[in-house]
Amino acid sequence: MGAFEHLNESGAVAPAVVVCRRSSTMRCPFCKQNIRIQGRFCPRCGEQIFGLPVGRPEGVPTPPAGAPGQPPAPVTPARPVTPPTYTSRAPAPDAIDLDIDFGGDAVVSGPGYAGPAPPRATGGTAQPRPADDEFVGKVCPYCRFPIKPGETIIVCPECQVPHHEDCWRENESCTTYGCTGGLPASQSYTRGGPLPSRGGGWSVGGPSQPSVPLAPQTQARVESTFLEHRARELESRANNALVLSVLGFLCVVPALIGFFMGVGVLGQIAQTRALANSPARGRALAAVIVGLFFTIVGVLALFVLPALSGGR
């Protein structure tokens, strides 16, 4: 109040008054220039910037040609640039020499193919010898049975794979797949020719020969080995059947399983007469008897006895 009293006194100086004016400038969205607002239209480009579109009044400058806001002039597409072609002064490479063997008579040979290669050395010098510790236990690739101590073997000079002497002489060569070092001279393999098979014939492009039966000694050894493995398998199954049948005094289910396992072992032994005296036969028979006994006892204990006691 005291400050305003000095305003009425003579010779008093009025305090300074700060006046804030509202800015009336803006940036035209068409010509992108700072302008002073003077109406709906831009004073520089003449485009309407406020309100609904209306006709341009008199006195408002018409926007010049090519000004912002007008549709752009069509752009001439740029001239395509062709990349430079690089040429080498070096001569073109020679044709690739291909030598593809498909295992038959068809051989794709390139310009540098000089013909089939000479036959490889055969393994006719392999001599039989007794099996030592180095080869005992290894599997003969022909009969698929292991080599036992004291047997006569022949070792391929190329792949060093042992064979039974009978297997080697029956095939007349090494029976390892892909090994040609043990082939006889009459079946030597040449490059570009058919591949000899392990049975004595020719796989592709050559005459086929009938299969040769096994030698009597080889046949006997194969049968004895088969019977030995079969006896072990049946003996193991008979033991399992007997154990399950004995466990039937605790529950009926193991006894029933042991009974059927024993019946199966007896059926397989009956098909092989050479195993009639095998220990597996007696154990399987015991498993059938014990399993049947405990099965009957369990059925009586579960169904018959409760029914009789309930009737009384």
Order of helices and strands: HEEEEEEEHHHH
Portion of residues within helices:
25-40%
Could you please say which CATH topology of the domain at 119-204 applies here?
Answer: Herpes Virus-1
* Annotation, overall tally of beta strands: 7
Helix segment tally: 5
Specify the overall morphology: elongated
Report the radius of gyration as a whole number of Å: 53 Å
Mean pLDDT: 70
Distance separating the two termini: 125 Å
Per CATH, the class of the domain at 119-204 reads Alpha Beta
Sheet with the most strands, sense and barrel status: 3 strands, antiparallel
Q: In the CATH classification, which architecture of the domain at 119-204 applies?
A: 2-Layer Sandwich
- Indicate the structural class: mainly alpha
Spatial ordering of strands, largest sheet: 5-6-7
Strand content: 5-15%
Poorly predicted regions are: 1-9, 12-20, 103-109, 117-123, 185-193, 195-209
Descriptive report:
With 312 residues, this protein is mostly helical. Among the domains are: 119-204, Herpes Virus-1; 229-311. It has helices spanning 2-5, 165-171, 216-246, 252-271, 279-311, and strands at residues 25-27, 34-36, 99-101, 107-109, 129-130, 152-155, 162-164. The strands form 3 sheets. The protein has a 3-stranded antiparallel β-sheet. A two-stranded antiparallel ribbon has the order 1-2. The protein has a two-stranded antiparallel ribbon with strand order 3-4. It is elongated.
